[in-house]
Amino acid sequence: MSANAFAGAQLTIDLDAIVANWRSLGTRLKKGSQVAGVVKANAFGLGIEAVAPALYAAGCRKFFSASLDEGIALRAILPESRIYVFSGPLPEEAEEFSRQRLIPVLNDLGQIDTWRAQYSAGNGSKDRQTAVLHVDTGMSRLGLPANELACLVAEPERLHGLNITYIMSHLACAEERDQAMNRAQLLEFKAALRSLNADRIPAKASFANSSGIFLGADYHFDLARPGAALYGLNPTPGRPNPMAEVIRLEGKIRQVRHIDTGRSVGYGASHVVTRPSRIATVPVGYADGYLRSASNQANAYIRGVQAPIVGRVSMDMITLDVTEISAEFTQPGAPVDLIGGAYPVDAFAADSGTIGYEILTSLGQRYRRCYIENGKERAAFK
Ligand SMILES: *Cc1c(COP(=O)(O)O)cnc(C)c1O
After folding, report:
1. Is residue 87 within 8 Å of 69, Cβ to Cβ?
2. pLDDT tens across 111-141, in order?
């Protein structure tokens, strides 16, 4: 029997749509620019062991992970692919990076020194240590700050022993088309490229995340790093979603009850009905990553009709007001659309006070996971 055979909800993940999204992003890039696959956080919660091989089969050969552990897990799945790790090495991690043939993104002078020492130590291969160099242009999170960049430009020998294949930076506001910060970051990145290339690092450049691809050819450079758009999130908020839908979450009604005016629903009695009502209980809750902030805010859909979430999201249950929906369609066992279709993940996220990224990466382990691949359904991989 497949895992979670009697789960309260089924999560369907469309690998064909992920592949279609990867391809369609490629067609939007200027000539010569490539698309990597950002598969950090277990491919945004959708399952690295399913998503990575699907992208690889489609021709993706550059993958980004967040951490050394994620890189190691991905190496076991994709023995041949190039795997980059956003979080560069601490000294005690450098050897494992080498052993696993992971390419670190070097974020500061310390990481540069660490990776160079790995070369000097003669560990791994005799080739220079391949790496990506990250310059900060506005995130103030990872990447060389201006003073460290200046230091590197003044002392290019700090890069001796390294094979820098890409210089990258990361946009802070790419999903806001008209944000002045986008252009400011672009100019700062170009200035950084000029100053570093002056020292004859023959590196290519990588700048755009999902939304950055939609800011135009100036932002494309040699390698785009989309995550969210691969997984169907809208990279152009406020405009129609150009990506194919990837996930659907469907639950089933467990119980329906009639309650009278003045009765409350759920913990904290946060919802009190003002008319005789029918309340349907569906077995998903915050333990499934169905965020508590959806309480009294988000919706579900039954046969295309909106059923508002009333009362608080519990650990294992939500309660819907189905008073307006025919009793015929609200019996125990009746299907409920929780995410997808009429209610895209971005809309559910907005109603829950968050972004689609957080909804995807929170998707729980109790759902029955079902993948669509080459038009066919297959059960979860594990
Ligand atoms: C997560 C991440 C990406 C992907 O961003 P999306 O908005 O999901 O496309 C790209 N680059 C870096 C540095 C990241 O951390």
Report:
1. no
2. 999 999 987 766 555 678 999 999 999 999 9
pLDDT digits (tens, 9 = 90+) for 15-44: 999 999 999 999 999 999 999 999 999 999
**Contact at 8 Å (CB) between 33 and 224?**
yes
Q: What's the rounded Cα separation, in Å, for the pair 44 and 38?
A: 9
Domain edges within the chain: 15-231, 247-343
Residue 366 CA to ligand 1 center (angstroms) comes to 27
Dist. CA 14–CA 373, nearest whole Å = 7
Atom of ligand 1 nearest to the CA of 229: 9
Q: What is the fold of 247-343? A: Lyase, Ornithine Decarboxylase; Chain A, domain 1 (2.40.37)
Question: Is the pTM above the cut of 0.70?
Answer: yes
290-317 core/surface letters (b: 16 or more CB in 10 A; e: else): bbeebbeebbbbbeebebbbbbbbbeeb
Write out residues with Cβ below 6 Å of ligand 1: 38, 40, 86, 170, 209-210, 225-229
Distances in Å between the alpha carbon of 235 and those of 73, 213, 324?
27, 9, 34
How many of the other CB atoms lie within 10 Å of CB of 342?
A: 13
267 labelled catalytic: yes
How far apart CA 349 and CA 354 sit, in angstroms, is 5
Place domain 15-231 in its CATH homologous superfamily: Alanine racemase (3.20.20.10)
